[in-house]
Amino acid sequence: MKRRKFLRNSIALSAAPLVLNQVPVKAMASANWNFLNCLDMQERVLVIVNLKGGNDGLNTIIPIDQYSTYAGYRPSTRVLDTGINGYIPLDNTLDVADQIGLHPNLTPFKSLYDAGKLNIIQGVSYPDTNLSHFRSTDIWLTGSDGSTVIDTGWIGRFLDHIYPGSAGNPGGKMPDPLGIQLGDAKPSLGFHTENEHSVEINLTGQDPSGFYSLIQGIGGAPITNIPTPSQYGEELEYIMNIEQSVNVYAERISNVFNTGINSSTVYPNYNLANQLKTVARLIQGGSKTKIFMVNLFGFDTHASQVSHTDTTNPNLGSHGPLMTHMSSSMKAFQDDIEALGIDHKIMTVVFSEFGRKVQENASYGTDHGTLAPMFVMGSSVEPGVLGTNVDLSNLASNFQLQGLQHDYRQVFTTLLQDWIGAGETALAAAQFDPYQTQKLNLISSSNIVDPGCYFDNVLPVELAEFTAEAIRSNQVLLEWETHAEINSSHFEIERSKDGINFETIDKVFAAGNSTTVLYYNYTDHEPLRDLSYYRLKEVDLDEKVQYSDIRSVKILLDNLGIEDRKIYPNPAVHNFYVAITTGDDVSYSLNLEIIDLNGRKVFEQLLNIHSGFNKFDIPVNHLAAGQYVVSLNTTYKGDYVHSSSPLIIGNP
Amino acid sequence: MASILPFTGILGKTRAAHLLRRTTFSITKSKIDTFSNYTIEEAMDALFATNTLTINEPIDYRLGDTWLLNSNTPVSPNGLLFSYIRAWWMNEAMNDNTIHHKMMFFLHNQFTTSAANGAGNPYHFFNYLRLLSIYATGNIKTLAHKMTFNNSMLIYLNNHDNRNIAPNENYAREFLELFTIGKGDQIGPGNYTNYTESDIVMAAKILTGIRADYNRNTIDPETNLPSGYLLFSWHDTSTKTFSDAFQNTTIEGATNEAGMLVEYQQFVDMVFNQEATARNFATRMYRYFIGRKITPEIENDIIANIASILIAENYNMELALRTLLSSQHFFDEDDAIVGDENIGSLLKSPVDFMLSAISMLEMPIPDPVTQAEDHYYNFFLRWVSYTFNNYHNFTLFSPEVVAGYPAFYQEPNYNRNWFNSTSIVVRYKFPQMVLQGNRVLLSSTFPSIFDPVSWVENNVAIAYDPYHVVDTVIENFICLTPDNDRRNYFVHTALLDNLPEMDWVYEWQTYQSTGEDMEVRLMLESLFYAVLYSQEYQLM
Known about the structure:
B: mainly alpha
């Protein structure tokens, strides 16, 4: 690791604080640097920038020490060493053999580097680089290499592991899609999991703000009996899965987006900038999505990478503008998230499926090649340059770079563990566990996730099936199962009348360690009248806690000897009927109330119930059209019992 | 065992509809009825009959005349001219009763250029389509040969700039990786089983000096189409030696311009002499026409057979295609459970979805001659391309990458890629657009409206019977007969809104006697909403 002394901390402390909505951002940022807890780490996000087509690494970062060899291989397409279009010397404190010149359009990268927010990783690929775009892209996204094939994406495997069952099923821990892709409508193989479902939502071409209004209510009635075994049936299920996940996430995405804001940072008008701007706004708006993937096309520069009329002007060919597009978009993103005070949550990594051949072709372009650099950007990055310049004096056949310095899996393993907090089992799910011992120095030391905060350790109890059911008017049965437990202490039973403020009513001891399915139950003998909410608080031996989803229970009328109860017609116009059929030896009164949407009682009547069939005609012609709730309640043998049903009153 | 043997007997409706959905873009109830009485031979003869274009070329409606095949100067900008050609192609596809346009789309995915991404001007695009059309069901080896000289391709993959002093490998790589033999597993550094990195270098040298003729003055005598030209001074004259994937073939360098063609022909012969090339085409045909999952059994029983036929026929495609599409396997009749594997197993592509919907719904789209602006601009460009196709990230004949559309190459999902969290929007807004014609996803009114009452009058024999109405609609719109619960949903929930069956009888008879169609229209709109919204309708 060659690095200069970066001035990041002193700059942050000495500069006047940025003010955003009257909140000094500096204080927020420095607090996070000095004080880390697991909750902070769980909020972290990875943004992956995919440069599609194979970026010309050699013209992105130029090996200054071998400039004349480089220029010899690239008489037309070379980046100049001097003048206004000359490369930008990155860092004169690096060893001579490591000196890099940035493409002249990478000024934004130069300032990011100087501010200590950029790490450049030299010579990245994998053993036996495959020079097919499509195969190599699959390799990067599945976590394989030139000699192995994997069918599923490492991102999907990882996310599926740390949020089991959450894909398409938003809940307490993860209300958002596990991954979001922008900039390429093709679902990325990276998010593909074994269950034939993808864990991401693709927002390409969508206006997130209007996503929900566009999506809501679309789709037909679900099919009740899907043919099986049948390919047709499998496709129908696939379609229903997409329908469901779009429907369940659309409202949340729109809400998060509409809640979120961007700062006054000016983004350039580029496709990638727009994608990143959306990402910043979603995160600011509270999205808990873990991995975002954004895409920039156009890097397959076989021809006219520079203009044949003026090879020295980088803006006339195709590669120079891409360098501007990429770096200015990323710099704006970093500026924005810093101004918003969310930069401590976000790390951005850039990759391309491969680099380009050392020797140019006669079309003012370059053909597919092996190694290329990666970039990691963020406020918590360990800045610098990893590795040394590619060796142009020792090429493989057909003018290809050799000497792999970093396997891309080392980079992603480092980011998953040191940044996101993937422990050993989560890395194993991603199939990156062999690289745990080969991590790179990419995250600044004070920001590396503490092993005690790894996802694997934080969620020691896998809770499945949690149900709550009223079995009598004064008994509620809670049942739950765990599928795995590590170091669990006990479950606290919590109850609430409003679903917001919970009180602990009792405690059930847990198994401690288990790898099999365990069954638990608890009976509440003093449930609240009407509606009760329950949840479980699972406490570990080391006092970490997690909460279950919330279940609600209504105490119903069924213990009053009622065999059948109907309220009809619904919608009602002038009147409606309440028909109640009871068993033998019954005689009591029910209080009927009609409640409007503001909770006001607008009508009340006493119904005398006897054995057999009872029918009551309830007039509603004095009530305005709209939605109401019909409530039936009484105190019976000392218990308050209650039932309610929705009622619509239509226009006459 | 998967069987390549032909299906015998009369097709019947389910199989007829399956065959038509997979082989044409144009499907109507009357076509299904006709094909349902055919034997497989009669059906194949109909599909492989000669297609006659309704119009030979699009017009530039701003000019009020054609421009591609005469010396007129168009007035619309190039972007619009491209879209007129796309519209023309779609309209022809929708009027094609044969397999012709379906094969053109297949070959476009096999030999991809991308009109919107640097593949020449509208003339070059049009000539690329004409080349695909000439060989649509013809010889794929000849097509591959000619494709190298196609100006659109020469520009798109930069072979125009491929020069001896430093060859450009772009076209050579894709010719091997995607267009012909295909990549195999990587079995060593730079070795992809079927070819190696060094073979790409050699192929690139053979292709040096084949350049685009931007002005279209060079004409290929066999196709009568403009083609590229040879520039000997740019050609690499060294001897080219290939790897053992090609039996270490050596090809001597040309000593003059004519020799370049000999060299190139030897190269094409060498590639097409490999069985892997035939296998690659057979696999691509299988995925396009039948399904994405290829088991070892299908590999042995179907793909190997189709590849053998291609080789025996010297790469003429027709017999291979007829065999594949006639097979018991195609109709899912080759094992104990009929209809559980192939029928309804593909997600409709946007072209399939749109063109089959317009034809099946018998929607009156604006006439290309008398309503040219509405036809080319308002309907095909604004509505089909900008609205429907864009939500699929799909521009016709313009994939983002040279491998074609992800649905045809991206494992493991293949055609499932067409249905995702973006395209679902427009697919599920479609019923609203065609039934209401109102502003859905578009700032202006939809230029064509589906009339469900006419559809029922024209296509349902016993229209007063609600079950017969629903069964007829299902039979034509949905691949496989649904179970009773689903049928009841369409009858009672969708059509009848839970009113008694007699209500429909009454309403239909009222309409017949009074001409007042409001009630039946509302009920039928509800039925067609349910059918077009159904998950089943996404499949073909």
